[in-house]
Specification:
This protein is globular. Helices cover 11% and strands 37% of the residues. The protein is mostly beta strands and 504 residues long. The structure holds copper (II) ion. The site of copper (II) ion has 6 residues, from loops.
């Protein structure tokens, strides 16, 4: 029988740690002398198969191909040499119905291993696109991810390898419920990003600067250009430092503000806007000039409709809103929180001239939607039963040393959280740092508990403010090894990641 990476990983936690330290699958030669040690492996693999069998299946397959490769991208009159899928940023939408099989072949034309993580989808563990559950795709090789999604929603996909997520390697993924009553006339997919590669420093250079490996050069460059570490301010909404990196550009659907994309609709139409923050170090505050927005979904899950004028979105988060289009030309503005810059796109329903590219509509400073304002609909509420497991993730670290950790250890030394299938866990994030962190759990969604103890929205990524605790309820219904991490690409790479491991 061929040994999969999962076989090796489930042998023991020590093996897991060794695997993560080795950054891969260097365990083939490890002893596995105890047959007793194999039984959890076998049962967990069986549980993963059983969970897949229990998912809805339509019998239809949706195929797609993605080729990560070096590419020159037009950001709107400005060219950037970077890494992208084909030559488009974002890569084209992948869309399927609940229960369809997605068969996505990724052909790696990069010079390093990569992967594809299906952010937010409660898919089978061995297709999650993260080691150790799914091997990375080595340079020159291809791999076909095959999975189905049990839940409709707005998702996205990106690599889970090194700093790949801060290049042009991302795309929206939408799973439709064919039975969902259509309460909108048009749909607009809006993908936000913070952009440096090929314009400013590369993500690798930024990471080296942040971790101090080239500090003299950083200071020199910062002195020369006034960029780099400087230029990121505070954010009241984020409770302090807004981020670590001032990017040269902020993009919507791959375009700079001066060359914004335009979405055409008719006055009076109800437009569903699916907004995805694909950035690496930027929270955006999003507003559509001249409109209020009714929030309908958080990270793909329905919430009680709630009207706002703007929305705060951390990296990895998705919000669906409905707007009723007015007559004219209106900028959809995503202000980079604490960074004094915007991304934008345009809604056009009639004649008009858009304001200048830096325009910030007054809606940005009216009712700003934050996570504690939303409540899951009864259909997706996880209920109020007492948890039978308490899990804790203490977030620590500081900007000075850039040593971000969970429960005292970087990912290379992490002690995974453990859960048993069927358990209901209360997971508490305890942020002891001076910065906010968008915390993301793979393979599951959780229900946020509001500060007053009442149930909040279903999400898979949630902003945890500095010096705050935030609890979520999660039901263990998807066996496997699942990453739990900060969705700041640089915090994650520096160690702010652990995993939630199913045990028997
Ligand atoms: Cu973080």
């Amino acid at each position: 029988m061929t040994e999969s990476p999962l076989d090796r990983v489930y042998l023991s936690r020590r093996a897991f740690v060794a695997a993560t330290i080795a950054g891969g699958f260097a365990l083939a030669g490890c002893g596995r002398s105890s047959s007793a040690a194999m039984s959890p492996t076998t049962s967990l693999r069986a549980a993963i198969v059983a969970a897949e069998t229990a998912r809805p299946h339509t019998g239809r397959t949706v195929t797609a191909s993605l080729t990560p490769q070096p590419a020159t991208i037009d950001l709107g009159g400005t060219l950037a040499r970077t890494l992208a899928y084909g030559n488009a940023v974002p890569a084209p939408l992948i869309r399927a119905n609940v229960g369809d099989e997605l068969a996505v072949t990724v052909t790696n034309r990069l010079n390093h291993p990569t992967s594809m993580h299906w952010h937010g989808i409660a898919l089978r563990n061995d297709m999650d696109g993260v080691e150790p559950a799914t091997p990375n795709i080595t340079a020159g090789r291809d791999f076909t991810y095959r999975f189905s999604s049990p839940h409709p929603g707005t998702y996205w996909a990106h690599p889970h390898t090194g700093l790949d997520a801060d290049y042009g390697l991302y795309l929206p993924v939408i799973i439709d419920d064919p039975n969902e009553p259509s309460r909108y006339d048009a749909e607009w997919i809006v993908v936000l990003d913070d952009w440096t590669d090929g314009i400013g420093k590369s993500p690798k250079q930024l990471y080296d600067d942040l971790t101090g490996q080239q500090k003299p050069a950083m200071d020199y460059m910062a002195g020369m250009s006034g960029m780099a570490m400087s230029g990121v301010g505070k954010s009241d909404l984020l409770g302090g430092d807004a981020g670590d990196i001032s990017y040269p550009y902020y993009l919507i659907n791959g375009r700079i503000p001066a060359a914004a994309t335009t979405f055409a609709a008719k006055p009076g139409q109800r437009i569903r806007i699916r907004i995805i923050n694909a950035g690496s170090d930027t929270a955006f505050r999003v507003a559509l000039a001249g409109h209020s927005m009714t929030v309908t979904h958080t990270d793909g899950y329905p919430v009680m409709p709630t009207e706002v004028d703007a929305l705060l979105m951390g990296m990895g988060e998705r919000y669906d809103v409905i707007v009723t289009a007015a007559d004219g030309v209106f900028p959809l503005v995503a202000m980079a929180e604490g960074k004094n810059a915007v991304a934008r796109a345009l809604l056009s329903t009639g004649v008009g001239t858009p304001p200048d590219p830096g325009f910030q509509p007054p809606e940005l400073n009216k009712r700003v939607g934050t996570v504690d304002m939303f409540t899951a609909t009864p259909a997706v509420d996880l209920g109020s039963a007492q948890p039978d497991l308490n899990l804790s993730a203490v977030l620590a670290g500081d900007m000075m040393h850039y040593n971000w950790t969970i429960n005292g250890e970087p990912f290379s030394k992490t002690k995974p959280l453990q859960i048993k299938q069927g358990q209901r866990a209360a997971l508490t994030f305890n942020n002891t740092t001076m910065m906010w962190h968008p915390m993301h759990l793979h393979g599951h969604s959780f229900q946020v508990i509001k500060p007053d103890g009442s149930p909040g929205p279903r999400k898979d990524t949630v902003i945890v403010l500095p010096n705050q605790k935030l609890s979520v309820n999660v039901i263990a219904d998807n066996p496997g090894v699942w990453m739990l991490h900060c969705h700041n690409t640089y915090h994650q790479e520096a160690g702010m990641m652990t995993s939630l491991n199913y045990v028997t």
